[in-house]
Amino acid sequence: ILLNCMGSEHKDYIKQQVQVKNPYLDSMEEDILYHLSLSTKTHNLPEMFGDIKFVCVGGSANRMKAFAQFMHQELNLPGSPEDITDICEGTDRYCMYKVGPVLSISHGMGVPSISIMLHELIKLLHHAQCRDVVLFRLGTSGGVGLAPGTVVITEKAVDYSFRPQFEQVVLGKVITRSTELDEGVAKDLLQCSSELQNFPSVIGNTMCTHDFYEGQGRLDGALCSFSHEEKLEYLRKAYEAGVRNIEMESTVFAAMCRVCGLKAAVVCVVLLNRFEGDQITSPHDVLVEYQQRPQVLVSHYIKKRLGLI
Ligand code: R2B
Ligand code: URA
Question: Which ligand gives the minimal distance to the CA of 59?
Fold first, then answer.
């Protein structure tokens, strides 16, 4: 595949392999990717996945299947989009579809769910000897001062106190990792969004939380330990720190990709403006259309990179 260069950031695009950061891995005779239902002994991973250049992850299994079918059409691949099959059919934890150089995988909701998938995905890319891979998280989020339907391209993934870091407990101690994302890919995505019609999008910080309700300052959970005023004050502080949307996976996604030398970007559509409420009230068909927006944007980016447009 001929990869086009789209800006100065891409000039220094290094042919790089996926770097797992675990000295024990290479001495293992077999590596069972349990939650993906794949293994280095039972599957020829280089043959199955060696040509992957773009990995797109998102929470919902159905949405990631729909994305794979959409990419099949967009890349004009032979055969019917209806015939694509789930590579991980041996498990119902995650689903995975491959369409040409694009891998589409679901990750469920929240940091623990996506981090299990990412450990196994990154090992998969390593075992398959993939090079120059870019990862995208395509998701939904709550907007901070943005109209529903706006797409946020993440500049920095930040934690509950707006710091660009991810904390992981390892052997009873907290390890802190940076959550910086690839600046060049974010800029290229913003450029792509300007080439699409009626496509409201911004670059901003994305706050990652460990809960949808109290953890995101919602007043409508089964528990609520704060006032309406306290909620608004927290959201205002977030806005001042550059936060434009809130979701539940971006910090660990950014941190793990960064450590392993993978370029990564987060693209989430906003389902509501959190200054105006907590419940998601848009009709189903409107929400479906919103959720297609990150897919349309990333598809445009991929087609450009492949020289198809
Ligand atoms: C966005 O949407 C989900 C919660 O509804 C969660 O996975 C996220 O990050
Ligand atoms: N996903 C979230 O995590 N929060 C929202 O408000 C909407 C979607």
Answer: 1
